[in-house]
Fold each of these.
Amino acid sequence: MSQLVIKGLQVGVETDSGMTEILRGVDLTINSGEVHAIMGPNGSGKSTLAYSIAGHPKYTITGGSVTLDGVDVLEMSVDERAKAGLFLAMQYPVEVPGVSVANFLRTAATALRGEAPKVRTWVGEVKEAMSKLAMDPAFSERSVNEGFSGGEKKRHEILQMELLKPKIAILDETDSGLDVDALRIVSEGVNRVKQEQNLGIMLITHYTRILRYIKPDFVHVFAGGKIVEEGGPELAERLEEKGYAQYVKA
């Protein structure tokens, strides 16, 4: 059983005019096996929360704390956070020309496990995971994210999640740019990994569409850099009807 605890998190970015505050005191706890949907209008701070937890250098922590199983995440380097069990699926995954998917995945697994997985066993794991995501076996020989479609990039993120077995996964707008078929396959992958690995998930999204496939246990509405309302799946249904206007100051 793992637990990610965020308390009073305040985050800013350095601009020409000084430090600009983006997150204004975020409190959130995610346990193993739970799905927390983070919803809100554009610019509300949803992605800032994701990248701050992951350790992006652009963001400065100005207050609060983040712990994973009682250990201070904010004191860790980016790779230490990954080794501790945090995983971030980015909205816009970066291209890595010249590095094959197969090589990337095995290198990542080696870094996390402290030793290289046995080749025969690893190849079997990769093939099985790719098959579940309806991915062509030749995909593993392509350069990471280079020339990938939106659906291929997102499937690759879920493939990583399945193979690297994190404790808590942060999915930043995983539904962005996906057609209905790709959304279904990616969502099935997320649900499967959650079920098999008892994964805790922070699911960041602007729309309710993905929540028809990945059922949230909790829904949190973000506005103005903080959580302004919380509830269950019924809150997402209300947002589908009424939008975010009530949370945005004129």
Note: The chain is about 35% helix and 30% strand.
Amino acid sequence: GLKRVVKKEHADGSVTQSQFDAVGRLRTQTDAAGRTTEYSPDVVTGLITRITTPDGRASAFYYNHHSQLTSATGPDGLEIRREYDELGRLIQETAPDGDITRYRYDNPHSDLPCATEDATGSRKTMTWSRYGQLLSFTDCSGYVTRYDHDRFGQMTAVHREEGLSQYRAYDSRGQLIAVKDTQGHETRYEYNIAGDLTAVIAPDGSRNGTQYDAWGKAVRTTQGGLTRSMEYDAAGRVIRLTSENGSHT
């Protein structure tokens, strides 16, 4: 069948490549160094059953008839296992070291757990809004963290028991534009019209960022006060890197 190849260019100029089969399932991913990872989907469900890394090491994945993951085995032979109730909710997870985590539910109509318990009996509890947003989390020591959300479901504040809070602000496109703590320290984020993150301004005013051209390629990056420029050929490959000191590669 027809295969589709998608190339992705990153801010540093590196290129990764993904190959999909005729029905859109990911089959291979090749990193900037040319190393390829292979993905083997089930022919019926399309679920990934095997991932093989560039060095030939494989991980295997197994599912129930509801397409839920029941076990996964890594290249080292270690396995995780999952069990579900009749409603399809995760009720138990066994880690590679044998530790078991159990999940409790207090609402028969919700897939969101109200509590988890580990092998030692330590219990963590959660409360949720009717829209599925996490409202509070109580750890095994009894410390409570509370979360606020806006009408769009975006998290706007995190309140910890010690009186430490973090506040988040978003623009009209739902992009995170500022994070502020209780002491007033603020980190700001800027974007271009395409929605690419172009700058992160730290509380001390230092600025890290990336400028893009009209095709979405990174043409200038600033990190820790150092600036680097990139030039591309017609095929979109980086042909010239210029550092702040004028050196070329």
Note: The chain has a mean pLDDT of 89.
Amino acid sequence: MNSTRITSPLLRPHGSPARWRTIELLTAAIIGVVFGVAYWGYSSTYTALPGLKALTGPFVGLVNGPWLIAGVISGLVIRRVGAAFFAEVLAAVVSTQLGTEWGWTTVISGVVQGAGAELAFAIFLFRRFTWPVAALSGALAAVGGFCYEWFTWLPGFDLEYKLGYLGAFVISGALVAGIGGWVLTAALARTGAIDALPAGQEAARHNAV
């Protein structure tokens, strides 16, 4: 039976996960730029709803997941050390250059969120790329973002609000960026668009069985 999966615990056909190929670097850059534009567009929509935070309270964290997806997808597709971090930071830089309400601080958010996304893959030594790992990547990216916002946006709120916001942020990160990123990666693999990359090669191998 043919099926497309990206759940194999190990696929490193080109040596150490620390060794990047040119096509992988280019792909990570493309992911960062594409999602940077998407982040900018999403930010424009977000800031157009000034009453959102007041209406939803700490549950506003539920809308944060889309800003974390570049790192998750890059980590799943490329499977190299630094892939998730690089794409998330680049996406933040691109969206900053296009113009966001938060200016250069968006890059700081990208750094801490990218570090969180990267950590999930590092925990498993860049050997596992299952949907739970993707969900963990999105969740840890959210934790990274929360840690930064603790000192910037959240100081004026009480602990109950902060914990509620953290929970909402993590849920959104795990589901939207994590599971959503895993589904998008699987869809890309089915099209053959990433056959030259580890995730695409794994899908092709399973299809051949």
Note: Confidence is low (pLDDT under 50) at residues 1-13.
Amino acid sequence: MALKADIAANYEFVLKNLLAGGLAGMCSKTTVAPLDRIKILLQAHSIHYKHLGVFSGLRHIVFKESFFALYKGNGAQMVRIFPYAATQFTAFEIYKKYLAKFDLHLRFVQHSDKFVAGACAGLTAVTLTYPLDTIRARLAFQVTGEHKYTGILHTASEIFRNEGGARALYRGFVPTLMGMVPYAGFSFYSFEMLKFFCMKYIPRYTCNKCERNTGGLVLNVPAKLLCGGFAGAVAQSISYPLDVTRRRMQLAMMNPETAKFGMGMFRTLTLIYNENGIIRGLYRGMSINYLRAIPMVAVSFSTYEILKQALQLDTGMKI
């Protein structure tokens, strides 16, 4: 009976985390969908937008296409982000739970198991959902009047049939994996460390009482948003060049002039650096990335924690 009770409890734990993580991902991505689209257009040097900045680009999308064009590709994004975020958050909780049994604390790094758990969770999620990200990027890159794809299934079938099968859907996967380790690792590590700091040293300003939680505290909403936003800024700063490389590889076959960026990660990195340098190439679109990443990660972590509380899951920690 005890074994059956444990299995039922674990099953409920996983289902609740999947739901909370998936909904948190959908909320965060919808919040920044317009910035996501202009980021893709700027990163990949769309001929219609490469001469524009962030806000002028957003205005141009509304003027040239429509207001709803700001959300182009967001349907595919929702199809991708629910399983992605659900898997990532749930995997983090599971990895964190099991890694806590081992002594992974490095001499100069407290809570290093959170970094390992976050990195592994990111790798797990991106491996399972990467083709949907490629499809979403293709749809978002299209400009009204120049549509090549008509929807998610059509995009997937066209890429599969004309660009080399399943391998084409995973174009840019290697730089994504390499970028995911620091991105997911530092996202979760930074959030968990800031959460620990708030609960241990400044609970009067950042926490509310919650007897159900470990430590008897829960972060208030402003603290959740601040911790999440800072975590997003740190993670994006470290992993951004690999994100640019991934996008250029994903979109390489949409234009004969950019096909050279589909030849491999290191070749693409080298080409971007040789043609545009570090600031205008590898960190192109970084300003917009801060504008979208900080609120996106803030909303993501905050919504996840709020939903966990609503589902009566523990959001505290040992302090």
Note: The first strand starts at residue 207 and ends at 209.
